[in-house]
């Protein structure tokens, strides 16, 4: 076989970039083994039938050819309206690029913000695809450490110590920690970005999953709309993970330039999927609240279940996950997760998958019914007790 390029090999130089447990869990499921899979944020509640009907109607009505590459005008208008209503920032269709999910939007944002070889900062812990996405775009990933004692909020000293960079990539509400960045944190990020002439790439796919506090986009801060690129998605807000429909919001000139990336990678999003997204957005904010509600309830139930154990959760203000502190075990998190899957048939992501700041932790996705989640927590607590020094 001819040699694969260094570019491809560099995307995940450590092998699976922390996805080993996820792949092992999927392999067991495909082999017919029954497990409780808490690895990824994929809703156990399926896409609403009305949205699927709209998708079917659009496909049968002829929306099966190439669609507008920036996104169909009606959908760009609906996204702009949603963003403006939720954030208070003036947003027009020209500020919106429709993408094949939030992951594509993230990739385009990094491509547009950083030259090859330039650095992109992101706080640790981080979503597992961030370093690979930065490397795939030709940039250099650099983590900014955060502290559990500071609620995993990025601090000025760590941001300034990181040095020059082309962009800062943030995620609030945060996956995996559930942290919601405060106004003070975002003001600091904005000041550092302005001083260093950096872009801020803001991953806001969990903006409807707010359990305490409030979500604020850095795009709303003074002078930041011209240097902020916002990643959005229908995946979490409308339970449409498999439909692969998202967007990127930013300055009009930037969106026009970034559309070239969409042309030369995915060549747009299927028209019938865009039609379904347009219908889904038309269901309004009450629908989004209903989609998020089970995860708020499950979070509360899980926190109550944890009170009966020696395991504690990292304080979480949003998103559909809990980070559990398992440092009482003699096992490190990857070994603990492997044993949990092997012995208890429970799949959860080791904190190390998300960076060094999350070592000694386990992330569970709140994507199963409450009874299964509380049973899983009991099993996790039992394994901690079984593996104490």
From TrEMBL:
- One GO MF term, please? pyridoxal phosphate binding
Q: Describe the location of the Aminotransferase class I/classII large domain by residue ranges.
A: 34-380
Q: What Pfam families does the record point to?
A: Aminotran_1_2
EC annotation from Swiss-Prot or TrEMBL: 2.6.1.-
The cofactors it requires, by name, are: pyridoxal 5'-phosphate
Q: Which reaction does it catalyse?
A: L-aspartate + 2-oxoglutarate = oxaloacetate + L-glutamate
Alphabetized InterPro entries for the sequence: Aminotransferase_I/II_large, AspAT/PAT-like, NHTrfase_class1_PyrdxlP-BS, PyrdxlP-dep_Trfase, PyrdxlP-dep_Trfase_major
Which EC class is this protein assigned?
transferase
Q: Which PROSITE patterns match?
A: AA_TRANSFER_CLASS_1 (PS00105)
Its GO biological process annotations read: amino acid metabolic process
What UniProt keywords apply to this chain's record, in alphabetical order? Answer: Aminotransferase, Pyridoxal phosphate, Pyruvate, Transferase
To which protein family does this belong?
A: Belongs to the class-I pyridoxal-phosphate-dependent aminotransferase family.
| Protein known as | Aminotransferase
Q: Whose protein is this, by species? A: Jannaschia seohaensis
């Amino acid at each position: 076989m001819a040699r694969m390029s260094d570019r491809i090999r560099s995307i995940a130089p450590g092998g699976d970039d922390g996805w080993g447990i996820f792949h092992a869990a999927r392999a067991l499921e495909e082999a017919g083994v029954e497990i409780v899979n808490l690895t990824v944020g994929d809703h156990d509640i399926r896409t609403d039938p009305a949205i699927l009907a709209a998708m079917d109607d659009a496909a049968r009505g002829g929306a099966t050819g190439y669609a507008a590459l920036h996104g169909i005008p009606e959908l760009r208008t609906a996204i702009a309206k949603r963003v403006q209503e939720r954030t208070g920032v003036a947003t027009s269709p020209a500020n919106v690029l429709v993408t094949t999910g939030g992951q594509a939007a993230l990739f385009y944002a990094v491509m547009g913000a950083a030259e090859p070889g330039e650095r992109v900062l992101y706080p640790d812990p981080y979503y597992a695809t961030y370093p690979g996405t930065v490397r795939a775009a030709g940039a250099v990933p650099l983590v900014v450490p955060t502290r559990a004692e500071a609620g995993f909020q990025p601090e000025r000293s760590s941001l300034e110590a990181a040095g020059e960079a082309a962009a800062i990539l943030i995620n609030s509400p945060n996956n995996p920690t559930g942290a919601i960045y405060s106004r003070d944190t975002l003001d600091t990020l904005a000041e550092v970005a302005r001083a260093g002439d950096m872009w801020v790439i803001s991953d806001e796919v969990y903006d409807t999953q707010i359990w305490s506090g409030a979500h604020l986009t850095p795009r709303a801060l003074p002078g930041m709309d011209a240097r902020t690129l916002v990643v959005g998605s229908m995946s979490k807000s409308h339970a449409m993970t498999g439909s692969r429909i998202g967007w990127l919001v930013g300055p009009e000139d930037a969106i026009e330039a970034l559309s070239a990336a969409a042309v030369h990678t995915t060549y747009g999003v299927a028209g019938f999927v865009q039609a379904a997204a347009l219908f889904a957005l038309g269901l309004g904010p009450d629908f989004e609240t209903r989609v998020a509600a089970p995860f708020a309830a499950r979070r509360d139930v899980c926190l109550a279940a944890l009170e009966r154990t020696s395991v504690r959760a990292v304080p979480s203000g949003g998103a559909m996950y809990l980070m559990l502190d398992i440092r009482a075990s003699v096992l490190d998190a990857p070994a603990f997760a492997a044993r949990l899957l092997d012995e208890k048939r429970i799949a959860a992501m080791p904190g190390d998958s998300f960076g060094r700041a999350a070592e000694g932790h386990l992330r569970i996705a709140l994507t199963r019914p409450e009874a299964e989640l509380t049973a899983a927590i009991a099993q996790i607590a039992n394994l901690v007790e079984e593996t104490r020094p």
